[in-house]
Design goal:
Blueprint: H1 3-21, E1 25-26, E2 32-33, H2 39-51, H3 53-65, H4 69-79, H5 86-110, H6 117-146, H7 162-179, H8 185-208, H9 214-235, E3 243-249, E4 254-260
Antiparallel strand pairs: 1-2, 3-4
Helix pairs in contact: 1-6, 2-9, 3-9, 5-6, 5-7, 5-8, 6-7, 6-9, 7-8, 7-9, 8-9
C-alpha cells in the first residue's frame, strides 16, 4: 500500500470511528454516554499511553541498542538461541502474533458488558481492532518515510517492525481488558506476563529471522503500545477493578484505609 493510500485509509478509519461513536454506550447504571471523546479524555489518554512502561521502556530501548544493531542482529541470526533456525523464527513470529490477536479477542469477549453485554463487547472489539489498525498504519507511514533496509536486504521497510507493532498493540488492548475484569490479582498478573511474553517473543523472532534489527522491534513495540492504549482509553476509558480495604486496630485505636489497583 502506497503512502497516499495509507493516509486515506487512516482518515477513513477515524471517520468510521466517529460514525460509530454517534451511538451511545450503555453503562451499568443505565446512563447513556456518547462514545466520541472530549478534549480532556484525549489528553488523559495520550498521557496515560506515554507513561505506560511498555511505551517508554520500548522507546528508550530502541535508542539504547541502536549503536549495536548490526552486531546483535548478526549474532542472533548466526546463533538463533531461542527458535533454532531463521526459518523457525520467521514462522514463530507469525504464530505468536496470531496468539496475541486471539488473546485480545478472548479478553474483550470476557469483559462484563453491563446492561447490553453483546453490544458493549462488539463496540469494544470494533474500537480495539480499529486501534490495532491505526497503530499498523502509523508504522506503515514510518516505514515508507524512513526507508531503512532490512538485515536480509530484501526491501527498505525495516524500521519500525510491523509484527512488533501489531503484537504490542494486541497486547496493550489485552492488558486493558484484563484490568476491566474481576480477576484474582495472581491470575491477572500471570495473564499479563504471559501475553506480554508472547508479544516480546514475536518481536525477538523478527530479529532471529533476519527481518529486523533490534531497534526496529523496540520502536514497533513503542508505537503499537502507545497507539493501542491511546485509542482504547480515549474511546473506552479505563475500567480497572478497585479494591478498598478497611482495617481497625483496637489496641492502637486506629483505623487504616487502603485502596489498591490491579
Amino acid at each position: 500500500m502506497g503512502l497516499r493510500a495509507r493516509r486515506l485509509a487512516f482518515l477513513l478509519l477515524l471517520l468510521g470511528l466517529e460514525g460509530c461513536a454517534s451511538a451511545p454506550i450503555r453503562q451499568q447504571n443505565g446512563e447513556a454516554l456518547p462514545l466520541w471523546p472530549n478534549s480532556s479524555r484525549w489528553k488523559t489518554a495520550s498521557l496515560d499511553a506515554l507513561r505506560n512502561p511498555n511505551t517508554w521502556v520500548s522507546a528508550a530501548g530502541a535508542v539504547a541498542v541502536a549503536p549495536w544493531d548490526r552486531k546483535i542482529s548478526n549474532w542472533a541470526v548466526e546463533n538463533t538461541p531461542i527458535f533454532g533456525s531463521v526459518e523457525n523464527a520467521k514462522s514463530a513470529s507469525d504464530d505468536l502474533r496470531s496468539l496475541c490477536d486471539f488473546a485480545m479477542i478472548g479478553t474483550a469477549l470476557a469483559v462484563p458488558g453491563g446492561d447490553y453485554p453483546w453490544r458493549s463487547r462488539f463496540e469494544r472489539l470494533l474500537v480495539e481492532e480499529g486501534g490495532v489498525w491505526a497503530a499498523s498504519s502509523v508504522t506503515g507511514l514510518m516505514k515508507e518515510t524512513i526507508s531503512r533496509e532490512r538485515p536480509d536486504e530484501s526491501d527498505n521497510h525495516s524500521f519500525p517492525s510491523g509484527h512488533s507493532t501489531r503484537a504490542f498493540a494486541y497486547n496493550g488492548m489485552s492488558l486493558r481488558n484484563l484490568d476491566a475484569m474481576d480477576l484474582p490479582d495472581a491470575g491477572r498478573i500471570s495473564l499479563k506476563a504471559l501475553f506480554t511474553t508472547m508479544a516480546a517473543g514475536t518481536a525477538w523472532a523478527r530479529v532471529e529471522g533476519e527481518r529486523h534489527y533490534p531497534s526496529d522491534v523496540f520502536a514497533g513495540a513503542a508505537v503499537g503500545n502507545f497507539v493501542s492504549m491511546f485509542i482504547h482509553d480515549a474511546f473506552l476509558g479505563r475500567k480497572e477493578q478497585v479494591t478498598a480495604t478497611i482495617r481497625a486496630d483496637s489496641q492502637e485505636r486506629s483505623l487504616n484505609v487502603g485502596v489498591s489497583f490491579p
